[in-house]
Design goal:
Elements: E1 11-16, H1 37-43, E2 49-55, E3 76-79, E4 82-85, E5 111-115, H2 138-144, E6 149-155, H3 157-170, E7 174-183, H4 190-200, E8 204-205
Parallel strand pairs: 1-2, 1-6, 2-5, 6-7, 7-8
Antiparallel strand pairs: 3-4
Helix pairs in contact: 3-4
Enzyme class: hydrolase
Protein name: Nicotinamidase
GO molecular function, one term: metal ion binding
Length: 206
């Protein structure tokens, strides 16, 4: 006899940027970034819908420090849409670094959202580019499926996960971030700052 169905029809798991360049050995590695993979794979069975996001940058992307002569990685610059961290080159379209980590069970994904493919604007959130208005299409997909509760996991807690969670809360979703299934960059205290912002927005950190 089969056990009870734990999935809820209005709840989705959003797995953020579990890609080679964000895992140990990658161009923008998050410490222990690969340690969350078994837990994420196991969690997928509890959800009706699973969405994966994927950073997908052109080589000339404006967020890469190497495309700003004299700029150091992790320094800041001003973009038309606001302040921007200048990152090491990472997740270039079609590269091995942009691929999902081999241990991630991508078979369970209902949708893959690629973001950051516009050369002039970065994209942390799964919902909007960093101008806070150019949509990725994820909100429409979730609405069409009748989903209003989200659980987020992935990389990195204080950037793409946090921005996704804040946007989701702003859009009216009930949002939980599985902190045990995330890892952070923690750039100049960014983990504490973004954790406080998520709590203030009503995001549950578990």
């Amino acid at each position: 006899m089969a056990g009870p169905d734990k999935t809820l029809p209005d709840e989705a798991l959003i797995v953020i940027d579990v890609q080679n360049d964000f895992c140990p050995g990658g161009a923008l590695a998050v410490a222990d970034g690969d340690a969350i993979l078994p837990g994420i794979n196991a969690a997928m069975a509890d959800f009706t819908a699973v969405v994966l996001t994927q950073d997908w940058h052109p080589a000339d992307h404006a967020s890469f420090a190497e495309n700003h002569p004299g700029a150091a990685p992790f320094s800041m610059t001003d973009m038309p849409y606001g302040s921007q961290v200048l990152w090491p080159r990472h997740c270039v379209q079609g590269s091995a670094g942009a691929e999902f980590h081999a241990a991630l069970d991508t078979r369970r994904a209902d949708l893959v959202i690629r973001k950051g493919f516009r050369p002039a604007i970065d994209s942390y959130s799964a919902f909007f580019e960093n101008d806070r208005s150019t949509a990725t299409g994820l909100d429409g997909y979730l609405r069409d499926r009748g989903i209003n509760r989200l659980v987020l996991a992935g990389l990195a807690t204080d950037f793409c996960v946090a921005f996704s969670a804040l946007d989701a809360a702003r859009l009216g979703y009930e949002v939980t971030v599985r902190m045990d299934l995330c890892r952070a960059i923690d750039l100049d205290g960014s983990l504490a700052t973004m954790s406080d912002q998520m709590r203030a927005a009503g995001v549950r950190l578990s």
